[in-house]
Each structure stands twice: as C-alpha cells, then as structure tokens.
Amino acid sequence: MQASKPKEITAKKSENFDEWYTQVILRSELMDYSPVSGCMVFRPLSYAIWEIIQRATDELFKKEGIQNVYFPLLIPERLLRKEQEHVEGFAPEVAWVTEAGNTKLEERLAIRPTSETIMYESFSKWIRSYRDLPLKLNQWNSVIRWEFKHPTPFLRSREFLWNEGHTVYATKEEAEAERDIILGIYSKITREYLALPGIIGKKTDKEKFAGAIATYSIEHLLPDGKAIQGPDFHLDGQNFSKAFEITFLNKEGKREYAWQNTWAITTREIGVMVATHSDDRGLVLPPKVAPIQVVIIPILDEKSKVEVLNAARDISKRLESVARVKLDDRDYYTAGWKFNDWEIKGVPLRIEIGPRDIKASQVILARRDTLEKFSANMKDLERAVIDTLESIQSNLYLKAERFLKENTRKASNIKELKELLEKKGGIIQVGWCGMRRCEDKIKEETGGKITNLPLQADRFEKCVICNMESKMTANVAKSY
Amino acid sequence: MQASKPKEITAKKSENFDEWYTQVILRSELMDYSPVSGCMVFRPLSYAIWEIIQRATDELFKKEGIQNVYFPLLIPERLLRKEQEHVEGFAPEVAWVTEAGNTKLEERLAIRPTSETIMYESFSKWIRSYRDLPLKLNQWNSVIRWEFKHPTPFLRSREFLWNEGHTVYATKEEAEAERDIILGIYSKITREYLALPGIIGKKTDKEKFAGAIATYSIEHLLPDGKAIQGPDFHLDGQNFSKAFEITFLNKEGKREYAWQNTWAITTREIGVMVATHSDDRGLVLPPKVAPIQVVIIPILDEKSKVEVLNAARDISKRLESVARVKLDDRDYYTAGWKFNDWEIKGVPLRIEIGPRDIKASQVILARRDTLEKFSANMKDLERAVIDTLESIQSNLYLKAERFLKENTRKASNIKELKELLEKKGGIIQVGWCGMRRCEDKIKEETGGKITNLPLQADRFEKCVICNMESKMTANVAKSY
C-alpha cells in the first residue's frame, strides 16, 4: 500500500484569507466540522494547545487566590430574566431545553450562554458578612450562544470553551483594582504564550457586556485588516448584586450591596493565533503553546538505518528535559513526507539527522517560522534548541507587533477615516466626542465600528464626526 | 460583631446515614444545591478535589498515548438513533434542546448523555487505514442524564463531571488488552488517591452499558451496606463501528470494521470517598486528594502574639515544599472555632503552635482520621508531616478495606441470601448459572441485584436460585 499524499495548503494567505484560514485549520488537523451547524470539534492538536493556555492562565488565577468551581450547565428561565439588560442581550441567542425524556418541562432551561444568573443566586446565599468577601471564583467550561451570523471555527462558534471569572468585593475601589490584575494576566498569556499583541481599552456603552457598567477588552488585528475582540473584563458595579440581593454586613454591622466583576478568555484566541502566525505552508505555532515543540526526523538509508535510529533516539531522550519532543520514527513514510506533515501541523523546530550528520557530529535544525536551516553541533544541542525556540517565540511576537503598528493609522475627518478603512483596513484612531449618535454615524458611514477606547493613545482635538471637542481617542476598525 | 457559630454535624453516621451524608457535604461547603432540580454546585472544595483526581488520572492516560479532545455538547437526534440498543438505553433520560432564541429547531438536539454517537460520526471520517489506528481519545466534560429517581449529590446527579475515553483498534485482541490497562489506572486512582477499595468484575448482560458487548466495573461498598458502581470500562466490539461505518484498510488492503472501547470515571467517586471516610465531626479527606493537607493554627495570647505568628509563618514556609499547607491567621476567629471549622472541612492534619510550644521547640500535630494529638520536634517537622500524612492515607485505605472484607459474605441458597441482605447488607457472593431468569429472580426475591461478577472469587458448585451448575460467582447487593 502506498503512503498517502500529505495534505497541501493551496490557498494563499495574502490572496484569499478566508479560504486559506479554512484550509490551514482543517488540514493541520487542528479541528473538524461537526454535524451540529456552527459547532466544531477540537481535535487533539487544538485541545492540547487549549490545555497549555488553560494551565498557564489558571496558575496565574490561583496565585491571585481565585478558586475554581463548577455550576450547572442549565439555567431556569426565571433566573435568566432577573437582570433586565442581561436577558435582553442574551435571550436571542439562548438554546432552550424544553423536554427531558418524554416529559415536557414546566419551565424552560437555558444552556448557559454565561453563568452570572445561576452563580449569583448562590452568591446571595453564601455571602453574609464582610468576612465572606472577597469571593473570587472561576470556572472553565463551554457555553452556547446560538448566533445566526456566519460561524467561523474558533473565531465565531456557537459553542466555545472559556474561563468565566466571577468576583465579589465589599467596595467599589477593590472591585476596580481587579481590572489591571486580570487584564494583566490576559495580556501576559496572549503576548508571552500566544505571541499576540493587543490593544487594551474600554468598550463604548453601546458595545459593553449586557449587564455591566463598563467593559474592557484586548483587541487583536487579523492579517485581513479586521479587528477581533480578545479577552475581556467587565465591571458589573452593583447591577447584579441588586437584582440578586447579594448583600453583606459591613464591619459596622450595616447591610450593603456588593460590587462584582466578570472576565473571560476563550478558544477564539486559538483562531487569532493561527490566523496571525501561520503561512502558506500551514500552521505556525509559537513554541510556548506548541504541544510538540521539536520533531526529530531520522534520514534513513538501508546501510545506516540502525545507527541513525539509535542516534535519533539518543537525541530525543536528551532533549526531553528542555522541550516537548517527538521522534517520528514511522517507517512507512519518507522523510520528505514527514517534513511536509509537521510543517502543516506547525511544529516550531525540526531536527534532521542522517548518516553524514552523525559522522560530522552534528544535526540539521529547521525553523518553522523563517524556514531557515542550519547545523548545530551535537555537543551543544540543548543550548541550540533552547535558544532557537526562544528566538522563534520572540520573532513571531515582534512580527505581529510590527504588523499591528504598521496598520494602526490616524484620521482627523470622516472622509479620511472612510478611505483608510476601505483602502488599507486595520485600525484607525480618531477623536470622539463620546456621543452615541457620532458612534452610530461612524458605523453607518464607514461600516467600521469603535472596537475600543485605548487606555494608551495620543489625544485628538476634535470628534471625527461632529467636530465638537474630542473627549477620548477611539479605535475604529471593520471587525469580526 | 460576634464570630458566627461554626456549623455542626448533628446526625450520626451509624444512626441516620442519609441525613448525616447530607449534613457533611453541605456544612463542609463541599457542594450546594442549585435552582435546577437534581443538579448541584461544585463549590471550591469539591472542585479542587476533582482537579486533583483529574490531573492524576489524565497523566496516566497521557502515558498510554491517549489524547484529549472536545466534541460538541449537542447531538442531533438522528445520530443518537443510529445504534439501536444505545438509544433505547439513553433516550428516556435525554434533555432535549428544541428552540434557539425565538426559533424552533428543525431537529431536536440532545445534550450529550455520553458522546459515542457524535464522536463516532467523526471517527468514520478520520479513520481510513490501519495507519490511523489505534485512535485513543478522551474528553473531560459534563453530561446530563435526566433521571427521575431520587437524586443524591455526587452519588446520583442529573449533571455530573467525568472523563469519557473512546478508543478504536484494528483487532479484537488489542481492544481487549486495553481493559486491564484502563481498569488498572482507575484502580490505582481509587485505591491510592481516594483510599477506596473496590471489586473489579464483569457486569451481567442485563446491567451492561447500552450498546456494549461487555461492561467491566469497579464496585464500591458504602457504609450503609449498599453497593454503588464506580469507574467502568466497556468493550463495544463492532457494534458502533457497524452502525457508524468505522472501517479501515488493513495491511493487505482489505476493508475491516474497527474494534472499540469506552470508559469513564465520574464525580460520583467524590461522594463515595466522603461517605466512606468521614465521621460524625464532618469530612475526612485522604491526604492525596486533599486540596489543603495541613492547616497551621497559631494559639495566640496578647503577650506573645507577634512571636507566635512569626513562628507559624516560618513553619508554613518550611512545609510548602512537602505538603499543601494553609496558615489560618484570621484574627476574628478563636483557635477553637478554627479547629472545628477545619475538622468539618476534613483537612487531614492540623498543626497547633502556641507560646509554650515555641519554648519547648515543638508543635502539636492533630490527625483528622484518628483524632490523635501528639507533639513533634520543630527540627524534624518535615519528616513528621510526611510520615503522618502517609500514615493517614494508608490508615483510611486499610479501614475501608477491612470494612469491605467484613461485609462480604457467602450464601449458598436463596433463604441465606435473603436473610444476609436484610440483616447485614453488604455484598453476598453466590453461585450463578448465568441465566437471566435466575438473575431476575434474585432481584424479585431479595431486592438486591448482581452488582458484578468478580474477576477474583471463590467458585460455587450450584446456582443460588435453580441449583443447576454454577458457571460463575456473582456479587449480590442492594445498590444505589
């Protein structure tokens, strides 16, 4: 039986981004479609990436004293309806359970689109005094939002995996201080692990989370020039604590409403990472989230087969202490087939070893990001591997950061804004008076929207729409 | 403001087991009820225990080359119906999604009661040749089974957390060889982590998994004399591969149906562990699964407060490298209040340190399992802690094993069986001819059922019901 032909990426990232993205995620075996429209299968490669992200994030949560819990998947309709803005935001996307076995349920149950309403019902029972605060809980689970927009795997999926943090504080100040801690964690994970830069900012009231008083987000820019929202943090103020009667006795014995926050990072980040770093050959994974960081491929001929395989095994053993290593010793595939296979799957570093290398006491290293090949002395292999992986990690980040910088522009009037969005895409910074009608006008006139109000940005004098005084700088982009 | 009174367990384990169990799991803050009938909240304590179980199990899975994945929560009805026995077994308990937003769905979607049918649809696409086998996948998730029996938190819950392993092999022999590997992993986790003995055996055809050709289980015995099923392993043979067309080309280029297995361990084990080890003061946790293994409580008086707190902090620091330690330095609770609080919560080892201990260069150790108190020299503290934790772990296991042995009896006729079940409960070993009508008769006459057919057991000459030749030894018990 013949070896099957490795799957190829035929679309070009620069020519047909959507088709290219679809080919990369399918052919690298990152995911597959499922029989449920808009829901995807996380195959071992993407799930292993998620486990790495999850573990790194969870460790940082635990250092902050945040504890994990698990609340039921199903939320009774009457609970979902307790906070007005919240239910209005989510009801159009809720998947409803109405029957169990052969029995019609008396009350519809929502599959959680997010868990505020079921968690806060418990919080109101658990919290009695200031001694019970802060309460810092988190869960890793999946949620369903039955969106009717066109789904895109990872980027917009009817079911996705995420963390949902839910914290309760005695004072507004403590609640607000959490913002920088959580956004700091998310920023560290996206930058240092996923090699993704992002713009931290505040959402406009129009775009904030349903039920929050303010939402902050990390926004990413995709290679097609569209922005996409990453992890977010919501100051809920006392909205939910009033709807759910979450009160506590303060030190003076007086009853007060508590202050709450919620925050999340989702599997969407995997899609952003894939889209950002990958190329026309397939996936490119940053070493820190690559389940396999180094693949070793022995170059075999009949005469020296045993010797080469043994050398490859030795190297594999040696490298286990410095990297996540895989030795590909399958004998029914050629070395060329394997090169292609691991390239599509995005393994950051390939090591080739053949009879000539053994004689020269060296191996060949091939970087997935730059496709460069170079030899490394067998003696210093650990060092060479560590250094190369670090170099790949930082190269990917710097490239993505450069792209973001080059595609962040300024416009001082609507004509400029429109032209830049149409011709160049990317992020356009403008002045904004803060009025909803100017925000709506931006959308109407340009098709772009205010993605967020960056915390760090130059100031403008005038609003890009009404020419009144600019109160804040807004990032405008076409977005997912 | 006064310190609140610590919660007490008022029911006795030996007198009113059900009430005692409920008090223990609620008052230790292990769980809480939720607004969804039959679904529970995993509070930080039980979820942290689950994380420890999950991580230990997952590491053993990964050593066997098993990879984690995530398949959609929802299963289209037509897929669930593909394997006849399977759908008949699960349909009466399925929670159905019929609406999304304001739209009625064209096809009902089942919330997974288990994921065979959605996973195997993908397997049939992914598996082409013998090179794609074995395929060894697993997922950690929650499932919903809308049972109408009386729910008991952890032990029988409409939503529970579990692993579901799904493996595919080219040959029957390879598939069957996996049984001992997986049951070995589950046995190791239940015995060495949860300190739970169990009886490994085969389920009868009546009791096997819907769709399997054979089911193997680990059965536990609860303190009330009832048996309860623990982790299980199902040989699916070619039942699903035929229903889902999971075929592969073998080395000779001939198409064959694949051989499949499925296996699971669930959060029920937490309930079994709690019921087995805990006592009239509250929870007793085996050290290996205790999120906090050692709690340090400073005994403070006004004069030596600073000195004692500093000493307690030093000890806490020192012990971090050998155990999961918590220093309880809350100043609004008395030492006595704290003793009680951590006893209810089951922390295996308490360390007390006061001014007199500092002078004597010692601390007081208090074991949660035996309630013994003894002093340990400050110099050898690490050793004393390690040894005591090990001793607690093995003591709990041995006690549980002794209980299981003492409550495993034999009966040679139906009268004996009935009497033993009624008067003593526990497990009764009997001879069985293997016929369904004798199995049904046991249930009718005694209210007990065949829990499993132990792999290791003495043989009987005659069937306990029909007096024909006994083909196998059966364990009979009243069961959850």
Describe this structure in words.
2 copies of one chain form a homodimer. Chain A has 3 domains: 17-277, 2-Layer Sandwich (BirA Bifunctional Protein, domain 2), CATH 3.30.930; 292-395, 3-Layer(aba) Sandwich (Rossmann fold), CATH 3.40.50; 408-477, C-terminal domain of ProRS (Translation Initiation Factor IF3, 2-Layer Sandwich), CATH 3.30.110. Chain A is built from 14 helices and 23 strands. Chain A has helices at 17-27, 44-63, 77-80, 84-90, 116-126, 172-193, 239-243, 268-277, 305-319, 335-344, 355-359, 381-406, 414-423, 436-446; strands at residues 31-33, 40-42, 67-68, 74-76, 95-100, 103-111, 135-144, 159-169, 199-202, 214-221, 227-237, 247-249, 255-257, 259-266, 294-298, 325-327, 349-353, 362-367, 373-377, 408-410, 427-432, 449-454, 472-477. In chain A, helix 2 (44-63) runs antiparallel to helix 6 (172-193). Chain A starts with 16 loop residues before the first helix and ends with a strand. At the A-B interface, strand 2, helix 2, strand 3, strand 4 and strand 5 of A face strand 2, helix 2, strand 3, strand 4 and strand 5 of B. Strand 5 (95-100) of chain A pairs antiparallel with strand 5 of chain B, so a sheet runs across the interface.
In a nutshell, what does this entry contain?
The structure is a homodimer of 480-residue chains. Chain A is an alpha+beta fold and 480 residues long. Chain A is built from 14 helices and 23 strands.
